[in-house]
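It is worth pausing here to work through a concrete case rather than discussing structure prediction in the abstract. The textbook approach is simple: state the sequence, then state the predicted structure, then interpret. We follow exactly that order.
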Amino acid sequence: RQRVEVVKALLRGARILILDEPTTVLTPKEVDTLFEALKKMRDEGKGIIFVSHKLSEVLSITDRVTVLRRGKVVATLETADTDEEELTRLMVGRRIVQRYERRKIPPGEEVLRVENVYVLNDKGGEAVRGISFTVRRGEIFGIAGVAGNGQKELIEAIAGLRRVEKGRIIVGGEEIRTPYQFRKYASHIPDDRMGMGVLPSLSVLDNLSLTLYRRFSRMGMIDMDDLRRFAEKLVERYKIVTPSLGAPAWQLSGGNIARLILARETAMGCRLLIAVHPTFGLDVASTDEVRRTLLRLRDKTAILLVSEDLDEILQLSDRIGVMYRGRFIGVLEADEADPEKVGLMMGGVAVESG
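Step two, the predicted structure:
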């Protein structure tokens, strides 16, 4: 679809092309093809505005870079004269080192088991076709793939939100069929933060307590003072910037919405955490905080990470399953995965491991 939109713009005789995060749903090979086309357009005298949070792509495709922070221009630089570290500092206002240490720890007990699972999409077609895998405490299992290859339906099935047509999903030793069963053992950071992650019209306090209220119930009544003190600690620990606990969630920025959901879903401790596109659309600082939190939680939790950001998958995952047309085309150990190999698999090319 990305290529179609570019072609449509050219057919209309466009002399300026604006691309907003154009590589989000592309494989690395498709990104290379797109960039070749963009360079050709540039050489033909056309202007291109390329909006992206992927600094490596910005540096590889642009001639000049303008950095925005809080709606204001903070710098315009020649691309050849800058690097990722400087751009990150300009974007955030401080230095951030985006290097993540994934300590080797022996995996613990099995927390999630998916056995030969088949799931239908909203149109009745097979979205997930015979997938099997496990996730153990102490590891991050990453699922990579271009959007629309069954990731959404698989996660909804694991969370009890979509019916499993065939096969079994077992969390904490119990076969999962409903969201209630899932919530006994697991937490879920959804990709649709405003649609599924929060209730925008309710307060920050209400949203923080959506999955926690039972802990603060006394004989059927919620101890609001205790709950408020706990919520204040979460706001401080996760650096949630909000006017007050009583402010409606819609007033928060995207990064603070993400922090709120992360705080709520990890506050009580869980055996399994499912994180779906946890850093999509976030600024560099928020992305760094979320990734470091996931690595910290990995010590005591089984984590299932779904992301279309290949760098994120490679940086955080202990094992990587690549989905293509509803199946795993392969599962790689972290030390045998690289962008080229995973990128080929995302495009449907089977690659031998090892």
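Step three, interpretation. The chain has 13 helices and 16 strands. Residues 110-201+268-346 form a domain with the Rossmann fold fold (CATH 3.40.50.300).
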